[in-house]
Predict the structure.
Amino acid sequence: MTYQQALDLAEFEADIALEKFLAAFEADEHPEVIELLNVEATIARRRYDEAYEEDLAH
């Protein structure tokens, strides 16, 4: 897997995690489920941001 592919995958995972969080929020899921999905989305977005910033540093 190339670095660009890894970056694209990280972005895709972050987008999916956010969509899952928003769907749970809109469906009025249990607060613990919403919080868990929020944490997952935040971690995925942070992972993408860090990978993107690394790319810019090179």
